Amino acid sequence: MDFFEKIDKVMRESDSLLCVGLDPDVEKIPDAIAALAKDDLAKALFEFNKAIIDSTHDLVCCYKPNSAFYEAYGALGIEALKKTCDYIRDTHPSIPIMLDAKRGDIGNTNKGYARFAFEYLGVDALTAHPYQGIGALTPFLEYKDRGIVVLCHTSNPEAKEFQELSVDGEPLYKRVAKKCKELYEKNKNVAIVTGATFPQELKELREMVEDMLLLVPGIGAQGADVKAAVGAGLSGEGRGMIINSSRGILYASSNENFAGAARAAATKLRDEINMYR
């Protein structure tokens, strides 16, 4: 089963488009877990993730660890990332894992990035950027059963600076979307990133790429409107969106019942999303 079959199946079974970003920060995790970091940082990061996973696994369609939150802690952070991916795969194998690493370089370098993500970590999908040309993504695309999620129009306020530059009369992000759609029609393993903080652009991209899968960040701490995002981005079958929230769920509480608070926050957002489907 490839990434797209896997995520469509879990979307149906869990009745959820919600993705939880697993982005642990020692300065924000609850004291009860943070205390472990003094002696075993990798264990502290993993135990925090494990508690979030155990409390939310029936509410999500995907988990999305952001590589930066692990790389920041060096080898111990990578150890925690590996343990987290292994734990999801061993205990909840139906739930896909997307590594948010925004990789992109010349083809030979991308081979190394692909091996790390798909072979060492064993994730189901990887975010990538297209700035060096779509052809440079070939080493990722060769993993036919994995998802390649290409940055198109991101959720950050600065996105407009380059992504909306006019290229032959159309914004650059639309040119990227067209190229990604061509790849999708050929390989069937490509999706795009389009932020919920730009609902008009999200709507236009949905119309352009038709039934392609969209990763939609910007809900939660970034303040995007759920109703607007869902209305703009749904596919014809009422799915087609992976709607991510990280901080709003992970840090819903800093007390000992942080996992319960995370579940409550995830439930609330999952139900709000479904209200507009």
**Percent of residues in beta strands:** 15-25%
At CATH level 2, the architecture is Alpha-Beta Barrel
Please identify the top-level CATH class. Answer: Alpha Beta
CATH level-four homologous superfamily name? Aldolase class I
Relative helix content:
40-55%
Total number of distinct structural domains: 1
Count of beta strands: 10
Task: Return the average pLDDT rounded to an integer.
Answer: 94
- Which fold name fills CATH's third level, the topology? TIM Barrel
* Largest beta-sheet characterization: 8 strands, parallel
Distance between the termini: 26 Å
| SSE pattern | HEHHEHHEHEHEHEEHEHEHEHH
Structural class: alpha/beta
Q: What is the structure about, briefly put?
A:
By secondary structure, the chain is an alpha/beta fold.
What does this protein structure show overall?
It is a single chain. The chain is of the alpha/beta class and 277 residues long. The chain has a single domain (3-275), classed as Aldolase class I (TIM Barrel), CATH 3.20.20. It has 13 helices and 10 strands. It has helices at 3-14, 31-34, 41-56, 68-71, 74-91, 107-121, 138-141, 160-163, 172-187, 199-209, 226-233, 247-250, 258-275, and strands at 18-22, 62-65, 98-103, 125-128, 147-153, 166-167, 170-171, 190-194, 214-216, 241-245. The strands form 2 sheets. It has an 8-stranded parallel beta sheet with strand order 2-1-10-9-8-5-4-3. It has a two-stranded antiparallel sheet with strand order 6-7. β8, α10 (199-209) and β9 form a beta-alpha-beta unit. The radius of gyration is 18 Å and the shape is globular. The protein starts with a helix and ends with a helix. The mean pLDDT is 94.
